[in-house]
Amino acid sequence: MTTESLPVRDPARVLLAEDDGEMRALLARALRGDGYDVVECPDGFRLLEQLGSLLLSPEVLGADPTPFDLIVSDIRMPGVTGLSVLEGLQLFEGLPPMILITAFGDAQTHAAAQRLGAVAVFDKPFDVDDLLAQVRQTAPVRSPT
Amino acid sequence: MKVAVKLVSVVMLGIVLLLAIEAHLSLRHETELYQADMRHDAHLLGQAMKGLVADAWRTSGPQRALELVGDANREERSVRIRWVWLDALRGDDYGPRAASEKLAPAARGREVSVDDRDEEGNHYLRTYVPVPVDSHRPGAIELSEPYSVLEGYRRATIARKLGVIGGLVAGSGLAVVLLGTGLIARPLQRLIEKARRVGRGDLSGPVRVGGNDEFGELASAVNTMCEQLAGAREQARRETAARIAAVEQLCHADRLATVGRLASGIAHELGTPLNVVWARAKLIRDGALSPAETRENAGIITSQSERMTTTIRQLLDFARRSPPDVTAVDLRDVVRRTADLLAPLGHKQGVDLHVDAPGGPLTVKADARRIDQALTNLVVNAIQAMPRGGKVELGFVRSSGPPPGKPDLAEGRYLGIAVSDHGNGVAREDAGRLFEPFFTTKGAAEGTGLGLSIAQTIVEEHGGWIDVASEPGKGSCFSIYLPHHPS
Predict the structure, then answer these.
(1) What pLDDT, on the 0 to 100 scale, is given for residue A109?
(2) pLDDT range class, residue B141, cuts 50, 70, 90
(3) How many Cβ contacts (< 8 angstroms) between chains A and B?
(4) How much is the pTM?
(5) Looking at the complex, does the CB of residue A4 fall below 8 Å from at least one CB of chain B?
(6) Which of A14, B76, B106, B204 has the smallest set of CB atoms within 10 Å of its CB?
(7) Residue A128 is nearest to which of B264, B273, B279, comparing CB atoms?
C-alpha cells in the first residue's frame, strides 16, 4: 500500500488479533460488515509483525507513521500475549487506540489494560454489537469523499 | 523394701553376733567367779570342820569325830560332808568319791579341789581338806558341792540372753516391717507408680510423699519434672496446632488460588465459543441471512457447542477420581496400543512414533485403560510440540530406591515409559505450572490445558509420578513411573 497520497485512509483500518479462528472470523465479519478494512492476526507473533512497521523510521513510512486506526486484540494468545506486545510498543509514539478482549476479566488484567491506555476492555462472552459501537466511537467509519 | 530388709538383716546379724559373744564371755566369767566362790566356801567350811574334827578325834575318839561330821551334814544341805581315808578305794564306805590320782596333793597334806562326776553323771566340786588324826593313814574331810545350782544359773542366763536376742530380732523385724513400709516401701511404691504413669505418657496427678526426707525431695523433683514436661508438651501441642492452622490456612489460600485459576481457565475455555454461539445465534435471529448463510452459522454454533461439551467432559474426567481398576499390566502393551492409536495423528503432522521395546515383560499394577489415557495425553502433547514434524520416541525406563523428590512415595522398584520429543521444550517460567489445570501454551484449537493435569492425576493414583526433563529449544522428555509388579 502506498502512503504518499493518503494522509487519511478510507475506509478506516482495524488490526484484529484473536487466536480462536471462529471468534476471529466472527469479529472480522462484523467489522467488515460495518465498513472497516480489517487485517487479521491469529497470534501474538503476527500482531507484532504487523505493528513492527511502527519501529521503522518516518522516512520509510512517509507521512503516515500509523498504518492502523484501531487495534482490537485478545489478551491471551499462544506465543506472545497481546498484552505483552502492546506493552513493548508503548515507548513508540503514534500507537493507534486499542480495544482489548479478555476471557478472565479479573481486576489485574483490567488494570494492566488501563495502564496501556486501552479505550475499552471486553470480557468474553460479550455482545458483538457493543464492541462494534465502541469501535465506531473510537475510529469512525469515514464515508468516501 | 527388699533393699531395706537386706540392710537391716546385715545390721541385725552383726548385733546378734556381738550379743552372743558378750553373753558367752560374761557367762564364762560369772561361772569362773562362782566356781572360785564355791572353792572359797568349801575351804572355809573345810578349815572350820578340820579343827573341830581333829579336836574331837583327839579328845573323844574317832567315833565322836565321825558323829560330828554326820551332824554337820544334817545342818548343811547344799554341801555334802564326809570323812574319807585317802588311801581307801573309790567306792568304799570311807573311800574318796574323786579319782585317787587327782588326790595326790591331799595325801601330802595339801588341800585340793577337783571337778568330778558321779556314776549318774552329776557334776560336783569336791574339796579335800587333809586332817592329821592318824600318823599311818591320811585322812581328810570331803566336801562335795553339786554344780546343779551353777548349771541352773547358766541355763537361766542362756535362756535370758536368748530371750533378749530373740526379742531384739523380733522387735527389730517388726520395726523394719512397720517403719520400712511407712518410711520406705510406701513412698517408694508411689514413686514407682508415678514413674510408670509418666512412662505411659500420663503426667497428671503429682506424687504425694509426706516428710522432708530424701523421698520427699525425690517426689518434689519428680513433680517439678512432670510439670516442666507437661508445660513443654503443652507448648509443643500449641506450636503443632499453630503450625497445622498455618498449613491449613496456606492450603486454603492455595485452594482459593487453584479455584481462581480453574475459574479463569473455565471462563477462557467456554467464553470464546459462547461468544461465537451468541453472535451467530443473533445473526440468525435477525433474519437477514440467506438460507445458505443460516446453515453455515448453525453449523458453527453446533461445532462450538461440541467444543464446550468436550471441555466440560474433560473437566469432569479430571474431577472424577474413582479408584483405579488395578490388574497386572505389561507396559509394552500400553505403549503398543497408544502408538497404534496415535500414529494417524502423528502422520498428519509429519511426526513418526518410534517404539523401542525390550524383549522381556515390564509388569506394573495398573488400571490399563487409565494408563492408556495418561500416555495418550503425553504423546499428543509430544506430537503437538513438533508442528514441523519429526520423531517422537517411546522408550522404557527403570528406577530403584527412593523416588527422586517424592518423599511421600514408597522406596522400591519402579518401571516407566519415557516420551521424548524434539520440539521447543518447556520455557523456564512455565516449568512450575505444567501440571496446573487449564495451563496451556497451545492455541485455542489444540488444547484445553487439562491433558497433563489428567495424566498426573492418573499416575499419582497409581502410586507413581511423572518426571519432566526439558531443554528450551531442544525438546522434552516426559516419563511416567509406576510401581513394579513382580510377576
Answers:
(1) 80
(2) very high
(3) 64
(4) 0.47
(5) no
(6) B204
(7) B279
What secondary structure does DSSP assign to A56-125, as a single string?
S-HHHHTT---S-SEEEEES--SSS-HHHHHHHTTTSTTPPPEEEEESS--HHHHHHHHHTT-SEEEESS
Closest-CA residue of chain B to A74: B272
The pLDDT tens digits of the residues spanning A62-107 come to: 545 557 889 999 887 776 777 787 777 777 666 788 899 987 677 8
The candidate with the shortest Cα–Cα distance to B312, out of B278, B265, B345, B378, is: B265
Interface of A with B in 90-109 (CB under 8 A): 103-106
Q: Report ipTM for this prediction.
A: 0.75
Rounded Cα–Cα distance for residues A137 and A97 (Å): 11
Peptide bond into A78 cis (omega under 30): no
Beta-ladder partners of A41: A17
CA–CA min distance A103, chain B (Å)? 5
For B445, other C-beta atoms within 10 Å of its C-beta total: 12
Q: Does B444 touch chain A (CB under 8 A)?
A: yes
Residue B78: how many other CB atoms lie within 10 Å:
10
Residue B172 contacts residue B122 (beta carbons within 8 Å): no
Residues in a beta bridge with A122: A101
- List Cα–Cα distances, A95 to A5, A8, A120, B209, B374, in angstroms: 21, 16, 15, 92, 46
C-alpha distances in angstroms, A41 versus B306, B401, B411?
25, 51, 52
Q: What is the pLDDT of residue A56?
A: 60
Q: How far apart are CA B58 and CA B270, in angstroms?
A: 167
> Among B331, B358, B357, B337, which residue's Cα sits nearest to residue B482?
B331
Task: Give the Cα separation of B385 and A113 in Å (integer).
Answer: 31
Q: Is the dihedral of CA B245, B251, B252, B254 positive or negative?
A: positive
* Sign (positive or negative) of CA dihedral B125, B131, B134, B138: positive
Residue among A43, A104, A128 whose CB faces B267 most closely: A104
